[in-house]
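INTERNAL AUDIT FORM
Audit reference: QA-55
Scope: verify that the stored structure record matches its stored sequence.
Auditor: D.O.
Record contents follow.
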Amino acid sequence: MKGHKSTVWSFDFDASEQFLVSVSEDKELLIWMISEKQHKCCGRIITPHTRSIYSVSWSKKGNYIATGGGDNKIYVYEINWDSLFTEEGEFEYIVVAETENGHMNDVNCV
């Protein structure tokens, strides 16, 4: 699966296990559609993180994805599923929660 521009640090599945989210040193979050025959990137978020994203967790209830990274920050995004399959490759989301300097060092797990 090609899509990130640098090292992939973490991934997680949605509740249906039909989609996967991955995060990387490139500070992007990619959502993939997964099936036995194909893996397709549905879209990306160029996140507000200023350093590598080390961890991602997809809520098993709702359309929420949390990320944590080398900038000591945690973000929670709400994904608009209706925008996932646009031709532009980016989809709509809102940051519903964030912590700035919530930790003194990298956030390695969310």
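Auditor finding: record pair retrieved intact. The beta strands are 8-13, 19-24, 28-34, 39-46, 53-58, 64-69, 74-79, 93-99.
Action required: none
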